[in-house]
Design a protein that fits this description.
The protein is of the alpha+beta class. The protein has one domain: Immunoglobulin-like (Sandwich), CATH 2.60.40. Helices cover 20% and strands 40% of the residues. It is built from 4 helices and 10 strands. Helix 2 crosses helix 4. The longest helix has 13 residues. The protein is elongated.
Length: 177
């Protein structure tokens, strides 16, 4: 009765992000619809092109009936209404201002999505898979793109999303209703 999300690592390709000297520290936020935003507890130094930074951050979103019925109802709606455009976990890579420049704001620099509906349809969790690039769909791979130019690939975010068991449970409950 839970969805486990792991943010493993981040690598950047040669882009405006790697050349922008004001972007020095990065953290990753993960959001499930409007319910919950979790972020890596640490922001790490921006990797150089071809390198990776490792967050090794794991989080659990509980979707049990007793304590989390709103999240569960959202998952039911998502499985039953294929036109719903909110079926994805959204990962946002965020630039954290340096300690000596705290007057600067955090800035979203890129996004990647993982479709929970696809996990259910394909009956496979995503384990340590890179999500990168643009907006095509390949199996579970969605793409990590620039917040200012959604056709520009700026990196790869390696994540695990274990949601299949919870989604099956929610689906069985839908069939019983």
């Amino acid at each position: 009765e839970k969805i486990r999300i792991e943010i493993i690592s981040l690598g950047l390709t040669e882009s405006r992000i790697t050349s922008d000297e004001t972007i020095q520290q990065l953290f990753v936020e993960c959001r499930l619809y409007n319910f919950l935003a979790e972020e890596t507890p640490l922001s790490l130094p921006k990797p150089t092109s071809g390198q990776r930074i490792h967050y090794n951050y794991s989080n659990v979103i509980h979707v049990d009936k007793a304590n989390n019925s709103a999240r569960r109802e959202y998952l039911k709606a998502m499985l039953l209404k294929p036109d719903l455009h909110t079926d994805s976990l959204r990962f946002t890579v965020v630039s954290d201002p340096p300690e000596d420049e705290q007057d600067l704001e955090c800035e979203d620099i890129g996004f990647a999505y993982v479709s929970l509906r696809e996990i259910f349809q394909k009956q496979r969790d995503i384990i340590e898979q890179d999500i990168d690039g643009k907006f095509e769909r390949l199996l579970f791979v969605t793409f990590f793109f620039d917040s200012e130019d959604d056709s520009a690939v700026i990196g790869k975010l390696k994540v695990s999303v274990e949601a299949l068991h919870a989604l099956r449970s929610v689906y069985e409950e839908c069939k019983d209703d």
